[in-house]
Amino acid sequence: MPQALLPSSLALGGEISAGRHARIYDAVILKTFGATRRLIIFSYLSEFAILGAITALFAIVAGSIAAYFVLVEVMEMEFTFFTRVAGVILAVGIAATVSIGLAGTWSALGAKVALILRSP
Fold first, then answer.
1. Rounded CA gap, 8 and 105, in Å?
2. Contacts from 29-34 at CB under 8 Å and sequence distance 24+?
3. Which residues does 26 contact at the CB level (< 8 Å), separation at least 6?
């Protein structure tokens, strides 16, 4: 399991940093229309939580299907789904995505509105 966490964390970090400019622009536009810092943080938090949940659920489903076929069809053993492990994967996936996402976009909240809107 740790071997899969590093590449997936790097991929997630790369995706978040690639969208940094767009997030700064979005935050500036929201500030222009009167959104508070709290509302912007909540919207980013919600976005990253949903992204983490979808990613973790996909990992649970795909991993379980692969494990089922390997255990039942190849190794001729019994498959058991561990709901606690799935719950931990879901919680860690959401927490990691929210943490990495907010850390990567924190600077968007401090962007100066006039500087961003004047730039081409």
1. 19
2. 31/113, 32/113, 32/117
3. 108
Which amino acid appears at position 5 of this protein?
A: L
Token pair, residue 32, equals: 């222009």
Q: Where are the domains of the chain?
A: 18-118
Residue 73 has what DSSP assignment? I
Q: What's the pTM value of the predicted model, to 2 decimals?
A: 0.76
Pick from 86, 95, 84, 94: nearest CA to 63? 86
Angstrom distance (rounded) from CA 26 to CA 13: 19
From first to last of the 120 residues of the chain, give the pLDDT tens digit: 555 667 766 776 677 667 777 788 888 888 888 888 899 899 989 988 998 899 889 989 999 999 999 999 999 999 999 999 999 999 998 998 898 888 877 777 777 777 777 776
